[in-house]
Structure formats: C-alpha cells, structure tokens
Amino acid sequence: MTSANAKPAPLTQPEPRTAAALSRPVFFIGFMGAGKTSVSRKLARKLGLGAIDMDTYLERREGRRVKDIFAEVGEDGFRDIETDVLRELAAKDPLLVSCGGGIVKMLRNRVILRESGFVVHLRVGVDEAASRISDKSTRPLFQNLDDARALAEERAPLYDDVADATVDTAGKTVNAIAYEVKRLLEKEGILCLPPK
Ligand SMILES: Nc1ncnc2c1ncn2[C@@H]1O[C@H](COP(=O)(O)OP(=O)(O)O)[C@@H](O)[C@H]1O
Ligand SMILES: O=C(O)C1=C[C@@H](OP(=O)(O)O)[C@@H](O)[C@H](O)C1
Ligand SMILES: [Mg+2]
C-alpha cells in the first residue's frame, strides 16, 4: 500500500556501473626503471582504464625525444615543459598517469601531485633499476651508477613526502605489481569496479 505523501518512484533507475572508474587521477612516481610506465600500462589494459605516460605525451607534444630536449634546452627547459604537461593531465578526467622519475624535483610539481591526485610510489633500488633498463641512451640522467645512486638518494625523501602509498617492486613482475596496485586503489576507494 502506498501512502498519499510517499515520493513517486523515479522514472529511470541509475545505470549500474559497467566499467572500472577512478575517483581521482592516479600518479605513478619513482626512480627511473621502477616500472611506472609498464605498470600503469598493464593496469590500464587489465581494467580498461585510460592511461597516459607523461614522457610519451610530452615527446608527441614537442615533436622531439626527451634526450633531444635535454640536449637542446637542458634539464631546466625540460622541467618547464614537464610542469606544463603535468598541469594539463591533472585537469583531465581521472586517468592513470605515469610520471617521469624527476617529477618530484620541483616543489611546484609536488604541490600539483598532492592536490590533484592519488600518488603511488613504485620503489626500486638503483642496481635493480640498472639491470632492468637495457637502453640507457633514452635516459640522460641515468648514465652511470655513481651519479644514479646520488640522484636516488637525493630524491628518496621527495618521493616519500609526496606518496600516498608506496609499493616495493624488488624482485616482482610487472603483473604482480599491477595486481598489488589494483588492490590498493580499491581499498583506498580510488578505483571503483563494476559488480561481477
Ligand atoms: N618489475 C619489473 N621487472 C622486470 N623488468 C621491469 C619491471 N618493471 C619494468 N621493467 C622493465 O624495465 C624497463 C623500464 O621500465 P619502465 O616501465 O619504462 O620504467 P619507468 O617508467 O619507471 O622508468 C623496461 O624495459 C621494462 O620492461
Ligand atoms: O628521473 C628523471 O629525471 C627522468 C626520468 C625519465 O622518465 P622515467 O622515470 O620514466 O625513466 C624522463 O622523464 C627523463 O629522462 C628524466
Ligand atoms: Mg617511464
């Protein structure tokens, strides 16, 4: 029986969710070789989510490779372009974004990351990173182990400072890391999955 002042049933029910969705952008940070690009891509494929790799996006936008940008305008010039791209991507509908390893260097980037997304730090040791990267010519700041170690040490507190979550990647496959990140994003309420 319906009472006189009961609300009428809505004409349309909300559509049940049919695809995975993110409540905020997810930014992958971590040292070169941590697997930011690979894990983000794997997760996007597994879940049918959109993913953008900052370096790939930036290279297309600029029409030149990262190493050529470094050679032509130096690291400072590269960092300016990188911040521009970060601002652009942070303003889009939520995506998986794999950042370059140096994104945390500039305070302005750390502010954007913290304010606009959920930040996942993929942690890797320098020796393991070096063993993963076969072609170091594409990474101007990973040319020898001593310099890479010093850089990693300098950046470690910056990654910790900005990360909402950290995943240790040592000895794990890209697939296993992607699964761990998926569970973590679900638990944090960042990833909403359709009912099975
Ligand atoms: N967990 C992993 N185990 C083994 N190799 C990996 C792993 N993650 C990435 N790689 C390899 O290391 C290289 C760098 O990975 P990439 O995803 O580009 O790292 P990043 O974007 O963090 O620099 C690639 O050749 C990739 O296939
Ligand atoms: O650590 C860095 O300063 C850099 C990391 C690179 O990206 P990956 O971390 O994806 O290799 C790329 O953005 C550029 O060579 C600078
Ligand atoms: Mg990358």
Automatic annotation (TrEMBL):
> Which keywords does this chain's UniProt record carry?
Amino-acid biosynthesis, Aromatic amino acid biosynthesis, ATP-binding, Cytoplasm, Kinase, Magnesium, Metal-binding, Nucleotide-binding, Transferase
Q: Where does substrate bind?
A: 55, 79, 101, 155
Q: In which pathway does it act?
A: Metabolic intermediate biosynthesis; chorismate biosynthesis; chorismate from D-erythrose 4-phosphate and phosphoenolpyruvate: step 5/7
One of its GO biological process terms is:
amino acid biosynthetic process
On the tree of life, the source organism's domain of life is Bacteria
Q: Which reaction does it catalyse?
A: shikimate + ATP = 3-phosphoshikimate + ADP + H(+)
* SUPFAM superfamilies from the UniProt entry: P-loop containing nucleoside triphosphate hydrolases
Looking up InterPro entries in the UniProt record yields: P-loop_NTPase, Shikimate/glucono_kinase, Shikimate_kinase/TSH1, Shikimate_kinase_CS
Q: What is its main location?
A: cytoplasm
Q: What is its EC number?
A: 2.7.1.71
Q: Where in the cell is it found?
A: Cytoplasm
> What does the note accompanying the cofactor annotation read?
Binds 1 Mg(2+) ion per subunit.
Query: Which GO CC annotations does the UniProt entry carry?
Result: cytosol
Q: Which residues bind Mg(2+)?
A: 37
The positions annotated for binding ATP are 33-38, 139
Assembly mode: Monomer.
Which HAMAP family does the record associate with it? Shikimate_kinase
| Sequence similarity | Belongs to the shikimate kinase family.
- What's this chain's function? Catalyzes the specific phosphorylation of the 3-hydroxyl group of shikimic acid using ATP as a cosubstrate.
Full protein name: Shikimate kinase
Organism, scientific name: Xiamenia xianingshaonis
